Structures are given as structure tokens and as C-alpha cells.
Amino acid sequence: MSKFDYDLFVIGAGSGGVRGARMAAATGIRVGIAEGRRVGGTCVLRGCVPKKLLVYAAHFAHDFEDAAAYGWRLRPPTHEWAHLIAAKNQETDRLNGIYVNLLKNAGVEIHEGYASFIDSHTLNVGGKKITSERILIASGARPFVPEIPGREYSITSDEALDLMSRPERIVIVGAGYIAVEFAGIFAELGSEVTLLVRSQLLRGFDRDIAGELEAALERSGVKLVFGGEVSGIYKDDKEYTVETSEGRAIKTDLVMFAAGRDPNIEGMGLENIGVELKSGRAIEVDEFSQTSVENVYAIGDVTDRMALTPVAIHEAMCFVDTVYKDRRRSPNYEFVPTAVFSQPPIGTVGLDEEAAIKKFGKVDVYTSRFRPMKHTLTKRDHFSFMKLIVHPESDKVIGCHMIGDDAAEIAQGMGIALKIGATKADFDATIGIHPTAAEEFVTMREKRVPKEES
């Protein structure tokens, strides 16, 4: 009989932790899992899923207006924010129940409470001592809020999803995908939005795509303020004042920070067992998700490798294959498609132009910018932009980027093409579906003149 309570104990019941626990339990081992909040994690309860429901709601603002161009006559619509949040909560409650049942049906024992290490095989979970042969950390990440005067007056994406009334004015601090997504949500639903960007919008994304989004946000009424950081938030009877390091003072009804996320390791007692960290924040792991402590592993956002839900699930599957199925497999981060559910949305896979040039020295670039067919009747100032980056020696497509309607759906298919090594010739030989936006990816023929030559 084993001297441990479990063969595997998982810290964190988000997407990665739940998948790892379930698949490990399917091999016949004893598995337990700890969750300090609700089972389901960030993506299901506080991120991707509820946020996209709000994105859908925001889209209707334009859809009602556009319908008139196609002959529909509607009464002026009104929006009830509280109804939207209540409906969102009902859906996340349903998903929470599904995830709980998935674990129970797999034979995984759920423990409510936060886990901290006593030693490398022993955890304190909500005051209860639990031992396990191996431990998998999948505790995710949380929004970062800087230590500034008045930080207590701000909210993050967690609280934004539970607001029972929509602010008339909101300042959003940040430049990443969460910041631009919420900027679009609030702006389309009627709020006056100011987006404070320290230096560059969507750092790490293709610069042409980021530039197109910047223009689209400004057309939608979002005020973009570049430069400086928030130095303090001050409150009077009716409003807040956001002060910046460059001397700006912005009046608003609500302040939201979307300026990055920190791995959830606080209070976990990693120092008690000697788990090594990188940059003092994220857990350091090897290619098989093993930490510096032999029986302790980590996956997902807590490792700060590639903070995407499907990636965390992929890492979980690789962990189970390696440790419990005698099939050593490490996660592959090449050509991972991803999306930003901004308005308009972004879909991307592979290298951006800057990274491609840095890696290969020279690349061929193909672009297309056009008004979507839908808006030939609405006359809306709305554009789609697509970009292919090709390695000239091999002819392989190494980057594919799009901003515009259905970008996320299209990028998923492009991800398959790039993953199997499709060349520009393969794209050119593919017959397009007409009339669609996606056909642009197989009809671009003219190379863009290199920037240094233009």
C-alpha cells in the first residue's frame, strides 16, 4: 500500500489542472485536486468565456445599425447591462457544474481551499494535511495592479465581468489583449473609454496589425493616451482622478487595470521545498514541465511560457503522457494560433514581420486591405487587413496575420496550414471561396516592397 494519500495531487482546478487530473486518473492512479475559488479557473469563469459573451453583446450595437442598410426597420434599441451580467453568471454557473462533474466522474477527489507546501510531498490544503507522490502545480495567474496611491479604487478584469452597472466613463490602463478587448466592449455598449498605453499597443503582435487596431479603436471613439504610467488614483464625492507620471489628470467614473498578470504562487510555500523561479515570478520548468524539485511539476500560466488556455491543456496532456503513459512528450509552441477578441478581432499564427526578419534576415511580405463586403451597403468605416510572411528560400509561409470580421475563425485554419509546412505556392494553388474574406489569403500575389527600399 502506498505511503501517500495520492499518487498525484493537482494545485488549481482551471483548464490545465482539470485536464491533467482527469487524464491522469484515467490511467488508474489516485488523484486529488485543490481549488481555492470555483472549479473552472480563469478561462471558464473569469476570462475567455465570459469575456467573449460580453464581446458578442457589444457587437449588437453595430448590428442593429447595420440592419437598416439591408432594409430592416427597428425601434431604437436599448441595452440592459445588469441583464447581460446575470445571463453571463448563469452560463458560468452551468460551466462550473460541468467541470465539477467531469472531475467527480473521472474519480478525482476535490478539495476546497488553497494549497501550500510543507515539504515536497506534503501540502496544507485549507488546514488539512495531504500527501502525494507527485504534485502538479496549475494555479494560473492573476491580474497585476501596481503599488500606487489609490490602487484600492481600481478594478481588474475579474471585477469588470461582475459589474452590475456600466460606467459612463472608464479609464483602462494597459496595452495588451485584455485591455483592448475591454476597451471595445465598453465603448460599443456606450461608455466613454480612455485607454492609457505606456509605450506600444499590443506589444509582441505584428506592427501592421497593431496599427490597424489603433486606428479602429480611435474610429470607435476610444481615446488613446500614450506615454507615462499611472502615479495615483484619487477619489472625491462623485468621481476619480487618474494622475500619470507625465502630469496628466483624467476624470473618470471607474479605473480598470489590464497591465499584465502575475503567476499565482503567493503563499504556496515554494521556498519551503526549493522550487526555482525565473525573474522571481514564474516557476522554472524543463521541457517536460518538471521543476527543480524532482516530484513537482508545473503547467500553464504559472510557468509563464505561453499564457493561453489551449496551451495549458496541451502541457497537461504532455505531462500525463510523459509521467504516466511512458511516452515522453514535450509541449510544442511553434505555430500556435491565437486571437484577440477586440473590435474588430485579430487572428494570428506564426512569426510577426519584425521577428521573422530578426530570425531569417530577409522575408517576403504580402498584404491586403479592403472594406468587407458587408459594409459595401452599410458604408461603415470598417476595414479588414491580412498579411502573409514567407521565407524566400524555402517558400514556406511562416507568419499569417489578420484583423477583421471572423479573423479568429480563419486563423484556426491557417494554423493547420502553417503547422504542416505549407508554402506560398500551396496557398496560391488553393482555390478560394468567393465571396469571402478568407479567399484573400490564397489570392495575394504582389510582394510588398521591403520597408528599407520604399
Going by helix content, strand content and strand pairing, the class is alpha/beta
The CATH architecture of the largest domain can be given as 3-Layer(bba) Sandwich
The whole-number mean of residue pLDDT values reads 95
Alpha carbon gyration radius:
24 Å
Assign the CATH class of the largest domain. Alpha Beta
Q: Please tally the β strands and state the result.
A: 23
Strand content: 15-25%
Query: Which consecutive residue ranges, at least 5 long each, have pLDDT under 50?
Result: none
Distance between the termini: 73 Å
Shape by Cα distribution: globular
CATH-level-4 superfamily name of the largest domain: FAD/NAD(P)-binding domain
Largest sheet: 7 strands, mixed
Describe the fold and architecture:
The chain is an alpha/beta fold. It folds into 3 domains: 6-143 and 262-324, FAD/NAD(P)-binding domain (3-Layer(bba) Sandwich); 151-259, 3-Layer(bba) Sandwich (FAD/NAD(P)-binding domain); 338-442, FAD/NAD-linked reductase, C-terminal dimerisation domain (Enolase-like, domain 1, 2-Layer Sandwich). It has 12 helices and 23 strands. Strands 1, 2, 3, 4, 5, 6 and 18 form a 7-stranded mixed beta sheet that branches. A 5-stranded antiparallel beta sheet has the order 19-20-23-22-21, with helices on both faces. Strands 10-9-8-14 form a 4-stranded parallel beta sheet, covered by helices on one side. A hairpin with a 4-residue loop joins β12 and β13 (249-252). α1 (15-25) runs parallel beside α8 (309-324), α3 (48-67) packs antiparallel against α4 (81-105) and α3 packs parallel to α6. It is globular. The relative contact order is 0.12.
